[in-house]
Fold:
Amino acid sequence: MSEYISRRYTDKLDNRIIDITYDDIKALFHENEKDAKECEAITKDSYAGKNFYSDNPSNSRFEFYKEVLYRDPKTSGFIMQYPHGVVIRQAERNNYFRGENQIFSKSVPSLIRKLNQYNSESDKELYKLVADMRIAEFGMFLFEFDFVKNWAARYSDVLFEALAQHYGLETNWLDITNDFNVALFFATCYYDGTEKRWKPLTKEMTEKSEGTKYGMIFHIPQWQVSIQSMFNIAGQYSSSEDEKILINDVLPIGFQPFMRCHMQHGYGIKMMDEFPLQEDITFEKLRFRHSEKLSKEIYERMDQGRLIYPHEGLLDLLDVVETIKQSSTFTEDAFDYAFNKSTYYTDKTKCKKFLAESDILGNKKIIIGNTQPYHLSRQRRRRLDRMYEDFSIEKEYGIKLTTRMVYC
Structure:
């Protein structure tokens, strides 16, 4: 079982920042490698049909629990139903991380950061509608492709909200990973918007201020997430608004159409109420001093970012995604999706009127009708579908889809 690094200093979880050394980072790296190998071994055994059952009937209950609680989560390709959808899981490692390349005051999803720029509740709620309509349009864009339709029919749910987060739309999802290498990459590298590629941080960049001198790793052991999830499912955290206890439940994204999510070993926190990781005592805050040497080492280890952002079909259509991210024109279907998610508005006609009269997008007027905010030519659609014409999830992702029958 993995533990908190802060246990070296205190038996009590709190929100203090723990300074870690490069030796600590190496230790976390080696633990991550060991963890990955364990998952690979369990997955290989599962595919070979091995199990923990013996001929001793007195051990059957324990062996069943070991199968369900240990083998299934650590088997890559295991299909499981969650509140947010049916997920083809990646093997569950012993830790979850989030890496940030400087010290921020709040680690919250992009949509919450955006909403904090508005003063009135009505403006916040209107912008939520806009953000959700953009997510809906992104989802409909994905389903323009036979590849995505076939995925939904054959494999699992297409988690288009979580995918939207990975492609830069404003959502309530906060990225988490169970691969320390991925977290360390985001904590030591930056995206050059001009050159459209990732680069290692330089000394000049990290010495700008006290906040830029450090990278941050947020860490939570898997067992802690399991405990929180069980309490959440059991309703232990649901109470009146005045007594509401917030938790940041880490949810799997797993294997999805296109490769970005699973290459980043993507998990996420769907943060509907603002609860920054800085205030969540279940996540420990590990701070390290930046160095060019470390940044370059991690940059090369992750193949200059290609191990996190691989070449995939959707890369050729990022201009369409960018159009959706900035859109102010939406279809009726997108409006219905956003309106049905809202708990603030109850009258569709009034809601549309408020959107039409709003200036939350500056000079851009919000229009709802029959026109999609993007144009996708037949040629571009067919080009992507041809890329995935003979797609097999088992072959392309190197997994076998597995399930376990549960009898009620």
